[in-house]
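lol ok so funny story. i was supposed to be doing the assay writeup but got distracted and ended up predicting the structure for this chain instead. priorities right. anyway since i did it might as well share w the group, maybe its usefull for someone
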Amino acid sequence: ALVPGLDQFLASFKGIRLDDSDGLAIEFWQDAGSLDAENAIVTFWPGSFTGADAYNFADAAWHNMAPMMRGAEADLFEFTDEEATANEVDRINMIAGPSLEILANELAASAEEGFIPYAATLGQYISAEDAATRYANLAEFARRYGHYYIGNGPYFLSGVFPVEGQAVLSQYAAHPDSSDRFSGFGDPAFPEVEIDGPARVTIGEEATFDVFIDVFGGPYPVDDIDSVSYLVYDANGQLAAEGAAEAVEDGLWQVVLGSDVTGSLSEGSSRLDVVVVSKLVAIPQLSSYDFVAAP
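and the output, tada:
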């Protein structure tokens, strides 16, 4: 079952280099690339970086994998459909069915024996006391919630009802991320731009315009703004000047037109265009302000 994914992985894989001289750095070398940055990073969850997904139950802890490994070794159930079909047993089900009794028995045996998988290696990092605590915690989790599917996310599976076809997720209060951490991505943070300044600009004299940038009813943080640029058009519709506005504080930027710029304006109606580019959204926002250039 894993061979096709492994073959695909080996076709482009070149090597892995570990450097623990300053923390841990992992270099992963392969010929395959990705056009999407989020897919260009290789992860090292069990089985995932090979593309084979040998363990396909999302995030895992060793102490809930141990009863599964023991049951699979005894051919009581299997990890893959292919193995289960070949051995005429069920595929592992961590939340319902006959697998639950097997998991309970193997968990009890693991706790009684102080079983540590791959003890020659993991025994250097997992003590007998740690193993006993983990098994006890898993047994209590299963007693309380009726399954063995533990995770590490902001929610956990607190109820399983196979007959009704329902499941209940509950918030994990101790998760380090607050429930509103990513709420800022719920709505696009489009800048709301308003320009204020003199209605009449004297040709040859400096003129200052305030650019107010808000988002969701408050000032747009300067750190979230990529650029604020401006264009000045004279009475003939010709581009007279362009440049970058200066940040004053969150939500406030300024465009200062020097005497050299206003001195080049033709007498009549002129226009100041301001283009705001945010770091949070890809669409720039444009605002315009009309003023009269006069002697």
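Residues 49-53 have pLDDT under 50 and may be disordered. The first strand starts at residue 13 and ends at 19.
back to the writeup now i swear
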